[in-house]
Amino acid sequence: MENTKQKILIIGSGGREHAIGWKIKQSDRAGDLFFAPGNGGTANIGTNVNIKATDIQTLIDYVKKEKIDLTLAIPDDPLALGIVDEFKKEGLRIFGPTKNAAQLESSKAYAKNFMERHKLPTAKFATFIDYTVAKEYLEKHSLPVVVKVSGLALGKGVFICETYAEADEALQNILIKKTFGVAGSVVVIEEFLTGPEISTHAFTDGKSYAIFPTAQDHKRVGEGDMGPNTGGMGTIAPLSFVDEELLKNIENTIIAPTLAGMGEDGNPFEGVIYPGLMLTEDGPKILEYNARFGDPETQTYMRLLDTDLLDIIDACIDGTLSQIKINWKKLFACTIVLASGGYPDKYEKGKIISGISEAEKLEDIIVFQAGTKYDDKGNLITNGGRVLGITATGVKLEEALKKAYFAVSKITFEGMQYRRDIGKKIMALQQKI
Ligand code: AMP
Ligand code: GLY
């Protein structure tokens, strides 16, 4: 790319998109930023455009009209719908995997068959479309057993079942009652894995890749990993118990063969690949693939990334990633998610949020916004389940967490809930090693 300022459109409306925009804005080559549809936080650093992330044709028309130079396709659903293919057909520059490559996330059945074909480490599994056949298989399976909706289900389509009755209920809900619609037309039944769960990410241009430091999300809503799964309640990075040797092992047994396998299958993967892993006694195993940046991992990662994000993204698109050296700050970072009362079930919106500027006056604190917007009077109000991500950095993880929780104490909105134990499990594990 020539050295002029680029007009950039970031698709999505979460804390992840705010964090990516915040980082991109630091690039000398970043011009005006646009977010579709964006949130209260992205409105402070760019222009929010009222187009849904999945309305691909309207996005294409907007990009042409506004002469946007580069679009970043961040969330899973537009990727699954083929936004990258559609943009490329129109000759528009876009970052993200094609529809075929994004199947690694949008179809768990595809992903599991891919892993089997390329001999990648994952839980033993079988896929079903018929309830009776699935039930027969289930009855011979050991407990606990994991039942998964194959399609996209906002992290809510996974059932860890301790009893056959629970597993049968999940199968009935998915295959007979169709509670997940077409996303549940195929079911995956798989072996239950145990071990610490970690997030790995890598930038890739389809040939080369650059792995991020490892991170850990906290998916359950409640402390001590209790309660239902959410989009993610907090993250920490890097994980110091993942040493060089383990990271190399993950690279060699998971990241490199996944990308090579996609290339061999004729679906080279361009963008960010995010395998969720379980570190089992038999080595790291893939729980799932995501074909995008994690949320809230990205909020933590953007605090650590020490290389121009726009340079990396351009290199991924241009196939020149191997020419870039990506640096990460030698610090720890964390994100504490502040959510609406009731989330991940029903919750109210429209609660006034206060204290963000007080929190951001504190050292090393950045607040990324997710479910927020400005009302007619200019008040910042809640507009979603996950509302804010309070991020902090520190020389030690403990220090980053302490700063983040102090910043949390400055922020209020009615019904606000958050986990007070982000990072605790990792700190306990580190002390044991
Ligand atoms: P997924 O959407 O496939 O990542 O599943 C959501 C969560 O369910 C994961 O983050 C794990 O905590 C859990 N999970 C998924 N698959 C398994 C498995 N085979 N064994 C144990 N836990 C699992
Ligand atoms: N951190 C969970 C996800 O992005 O899927």
Could you explain how this protein is built, in words?
The mean pLDDT is 96. This protein has helices at residues 15-24, 56-66, 76-80, 83-89, 99-106, 108-117, 131-139, 164-176, 244-264, 297-304, 309-318, 356-361, 397-408, 424-432; strands spanning 6-12, 30-37, 47-48, 70-73, 94-95, 125-128, 145-149, 158-161, 187-191, 197-199, 202-204, 209-211, 216-217, 220-222, 226-229, 234-237, 271-280, 283-290, 332-339, 365-369, 372-374, 380-382, 386-394. The chain has 433 residues and is of the alpha+beta class. The chain is built from 14 helices and 23 strands. Helix 1 (15-24) runs parallel beside helix 10, helix 5 (99-106) crosses helix 6 (108-117) and helix 7 packs antiparallel against helix 8. Helix 1 links the parallel strand 1 (6-12) and strand 2. 32% of the residues lie in helices and 25% in strands. The protein binds adenosine monophosphate (AMP) and glycine (GLY). Glycine (GLY) is lined by residues 155, 217, 232, 290, 294-295, 297. Residues 123, 146, 148, 155, 158, 160, 190-193, 197, 219, 276, 287-288 line the site of adenosine monophosphate.
State the gist of this model.
This protein has 433 residues and is α+β, with helices and mostly antiparallel strands. The chain has helices at residues 15-24, 56-66, 76-80, 83-89, 99-106, 108-117, 131-139, 164-176, 244-264, 297-304, 309-318, 356-361, 397-408, 424-432, and strands spanning 6-12, 30-37, 47-48, 70-73, 94-95, 125-128, 145-149, 158-161, 187-191, 197-199, 202-204, 209-211, 216-217, 220-222, 226-229, 234-237, 271-280, 283-290, 332-339, 365-369, 372-374, 380-382, 386-394.
